[in-house]
Request: fold
Amino acid sequence: MTRDHASAAHGLTSALDIEHVRNDFPVLNQQIHGKPLAYLDNAATTQKPHHVIDAIKYYYEHDNANVHRGVHQLSERATHAYEGAREKVRKFINASSTREIVFVRGATEAINLVAGSYGQLTVRAGDRIVVSEMEHHSNIVPWQLLCERTGAALRVIPMNDKGELILDGLNEIIDDRTRLVAVSHVSNSLGTVNPVNRIIETAHAKGVPVLLDGAQATAHISVDVQALDVDFYVFSAHKMYGPTGIGALYAKEKLLRDMPPYQGGGDMISMVTFDKTLYNELPFRFEAGTPHIAGAIGLGAAIDYLTSIGLDRIARHEHELLQYATEKALTIPDLRIVGTAQHKVSILSFLLEGIHPHDIGTILDHQGIAIRTGHHCAMPVMTHFGVAATARASFAIYNTYQEIDRLFDALNEVRKVFR
Reply:
């Protein structure tokens, strides 16, 4: 079934001018092995629009200087752009103050910051940290390290074979020794959108704070940290059309105020003597050293880009692509979809019977189609489904029905080669 036939059959319409959007992304205009690039690896990292590239380029060409302490014009302009990006992040997730927005290298560093600072402050031997079975390694390993340091224990919210969290026993999993619940907003390996409101309400009823890993959420759905009443929220720019090496930690100000510094160095201090150091005010207390200024500016530009198009329109387009791809997948008898949750975004993980995902990915690459194969930094998910790896196609704002058609035509060629 072609894109046009699918649109007619299912009423699939999009308010987006996809060709106009695709022209915003220069990397898409190339060939791989003599074939037009179909980039379907967006859950790993998204491509960058001209708007982001130009913002970074402008900073380096016109405003390159260190921030905060300089009195010359370049430093003042750089500081204005850097702190302007912080305000854009605040508005994007509806934090109440820029004091609650800490720039970090990405979601991974943000989680490590919370584990190293809040965890150091609150977790003791016999305490518990709760995660879910579908977490990315970056939302497992930092808590394991914290448990090793403190004598605490990790508890796990299980999931079913659709890839949905089983919350029936959540009241027992979160108990009076639980010090934090840390779960993904959206699963990177399955695409599941978790019922985070219910998790937060249950945890808060027992006085337990919640961290949400939003790395896979912010490019696809609107996030309102005040409406969620979440305590910590983390995300990375590179998964939402921004640069690599930059992201943000949101934390309620009342929590940040009591947390000890995560790293020491310049800019996180207000006064230093050999006898004592006084720390800077929020959020700078958690931003030691020269920050990734260009990255923050690029993140701000990515937010501008997403906002100009509208997350609702993006979500509608991506939902239609996922629905179309899922319907095509269901017509292949030896293809198994891994992750069939009722509420999903933008990710189709699958297996072809008797064919290793790495072989699938290699053959698709020679057709100009980029997907991800492997365990997706989610080995416990693979263990749950009894597999070592999956093939994962993940969709973004610039993907088309024609690219999905090419994906499934290529998968049928893979089946012929191995049959």
Observations:
- The chain has two domains: 3-32+310-418, 52-307.
- Residues 1-14 have pLDDT under 50 and may be disordered.
